[in-house]
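Subject: mismatched residue count in predicted assembly?

I count 948 residues in my input, but I want to confirm that the predicted structure covers every chain. Input:
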Amino acid sequence: MRISISFRRYDWVLLSAIIGLSGWSLFHLYTITFPEETYYFFRQILWVGMGIGFMFLFSWLKISFWEKGAYFFYGAIFLFLLLVLIRGEGTHGVQRWLSIGIIRFQPSEFAKLSLIIILSRLLASGEGGEGISWKQVGLSFFFTFVFLILVAGQPDLGSALLFLPLCLGMLFLAGISFKRFLVILGIGSSFLPLSYFLLHPYQKMRILTFLNPGRDPLGAGWSALQSKIALGSGRLIGKGIGGALHTERGFLPLPFTDFIFASLGEEWGFIGVLVLLGLYFVIMTRGMRIARQENASFARLLSSGIIILLFLQVFINIGMVAGIMPVTGMPLPLISYGGSSTLMFFTGIGILLSIKRFRGG
Amino acid sequence: MNYELRTTNYSGRFEARARIFWIIVICGLFILLGRIAWLQLIEGERYFRISQNSRLQLLPLPPPRGLILDRRGEKLAENEVLFSVGVVPSNVFNLEGLLPRLTQALDVDKEIIKEKLQGAPYPFRPVFLKENVDMSTITYLLEREKEFPGVVIIAQPVRSYPYKMVAAHVLGHLGEVDQAELSMSSGLGIEPGDLVGKMGIEKVYNSYLQGRKGGRQVEVDAYGRSLEIISEKDPLPGDNIYLTIDLRIQKIAEKELGRRKGVVLIGDPETGELLALVSHPAFDPNLFSWGISEDEWNRLKQDSGNPLENRAIRGEYSPASTFKIILTAAALEENIIKKEDTLFCSGKLLVGRRVFKCWEEEGHGRLDLEEAIIHSCDVFFYQLGLKVGVEKMIQYARLFGLGKATDLDLIGEKCGLLSTADWKLKNKGEVWYGGDTANLSIGQGYILVTPLQMLRVISALANGGNLVKPYLVKKIENLEGEVIKDFSSSKKKKISLSSSTISFLKKSLRGVVREGTGWRAENKIVEIAGKTGTVELSEGERPHNWFIGYAPSDNPRLAIVVLVEHREEDISIAAQIAGRILSQAFE
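Triage response: the counts match. Full output below for your records.
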């Protein structure tokens, strides 16, 4: 009896969209990894399986678990990020992974969720009639920049820079006054040119290439160009299942992770893209619905924070593939191959589900 | 109540913010959708085509170039596989770690490797680091494949000349096709970037050697590896060319000429086949096979010894005393002198107001025609020349083929120079003096010949009066070994010389070697007949030295021309070289 009530409280629309997206992602991964690289496919099955486990596990946890543990999680991730810089592993001269026993993961992925949790607690606890105080703003940026610097040092500028709009979005939804918001934006944009000088040469190259793709079409612009070709060549109905030849023949770098959307667009065409964006739209709508119906500030901010993160990553990743954003290493939520990203998003969805389930009344 | 209101207020603010956020989300999604619609629906066809084209490639299959062989089938130009080492930039993750190992293994500068990698046009295609890498390095790299991530070994067919400089001027060399050659060879499938013959047999017979390109339409991946052959047309290998050159004799001739500048030509006097053509200094045609470096090219171009110049057909020299053969023939044929007539040599002769000296300052005394030839008496021939006259001398020179190209199957042959009184008036603005005639009588002054022309002269004498056309290609065979072109039916032109004149000249030329100026050619193996010549140049310059002859003297089978530029020895070195070459050739 009690169990049946619990299940009835699940957001089945959200759940179906998530399962649909993950199923599609696995199927697509299979078609582009078959036959030589199905290793990635089988690994991803494992991640998605674990992710679904995480999702249901966390959907049974009360929201207060996250509120109470916010600082603890932040501290733990902080330590992990430090460890990555000291003894991390990775390829292409960047360190992103951390191995603890047999577990090997990317703390920077979990840092995103951890930042949302701590900001939700920080901004929710200070809620008063007069809105967000400068002190809260200061602390928010402090927490954000600690992670930003640690992640940028890996170096993973893509993920690092994601923290900024995430923090701004949360401040905005937490109700910061427009005046203060504009002051923050003003200060921020005046620091922008300065930060250019702190970038690695390859990062500068990517930005310059993005601003002017013709600059170096075969060097730094290679991935940008090839991803556009792959995506565009899908046309309306795509090249069919297993037909993403441009992707498969190695023209596209990182076809399973950062550029998976290009192969998806190549195989499924514009119709597939519409369905995919539709699924994301459903997930975000349901997520925002959960947030709007919630009265408790923490839960509301937490759930909307997860949606902000989801939206940012979808926009940046697809924008990158489509050539309207610079090339940065950023997985497409719930589609790209990768354990940490998959687990983090399933955890996030689990939190959304739990908020719905435990709502009073 | 108050609390209730505050909560509502608060929720209201969130609601408002959420709405703004939601608008941003919708806008974001529409921006993405719009952009993707543009890429897939409007530009889709174009990207589809690009994606097809980058996957489908037409790989030309270069035909194996025809071989060039000597008359016995010894390979003088063949095709080899050349190994190059390259790096696929996208597969190099730790350049700093790889660099020192690469520089050590390949002996290429670190900075050069770095530069090449940074300038790489395709991250997935190999960049060439070093071409023509020796086998030991290749084995070293293959054995340590793990230590050299991203390093690939590329095999390319390349033209190779196993004997390096030997017969370089005959074989010629390859080079990238230029605009003029492209427009001339339309329909042969030659494309920009292809290698074609640039000199020698490689150039003249390029259309035979080239073969026909095949093609293969393949599906490739981004690394340029072919995955599937869609259609294929086999290349047609080039035809094999058998030269008249005899590698053994060619090598002997090159060895005996040594480091001296000059020419050795050996031919079959009956047919005109060339068995050896040496022009020194020479070059190594292998240098051109994989693209010569600018430094090497400039060095060859600017070398004062002109290694690229084929002196045998492009060097123009005074014939000096070798011309006395022609003068004698003219005098006998025109009945201006009889064999037994004698003339006196006091060591000098006054012609007009100028004193003409004999090379023998003491004078030869009284000698007959045969003795004059044997001792190469200048004063005798001044007198004879003045009797014969410039017109007759030139007429006979023409009969022997001087003054025009021999039409050897090489490009760039020079004609030499035969001048008459008219020519001098026109070109020098001076009248013809008796002194000029005297000078011409000993092959100096306004007369120039190429060594190949002189081979023709001596061959005509050796074969009893036939002017033969020298040639270098015996036959051309296709892949199946069928002879598609046979050149052995040589063209001859009879020179109207009486047999008594010919036998007199032959007897005299044998005397030259037996007891006269050509004695250094005498040897125990084969009897040589011939004539020496010393080209006097301006003050302070070492003279050129000629020997033209044939052997065996009674039944000539080989004709020879040796020319040494600026001889360093004060002897008839050309005769000595000819003697050594012929004695080894007949051994």
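The longest strand of chain A covers residues 98-100. Marking this ticket as 'not a bug'.
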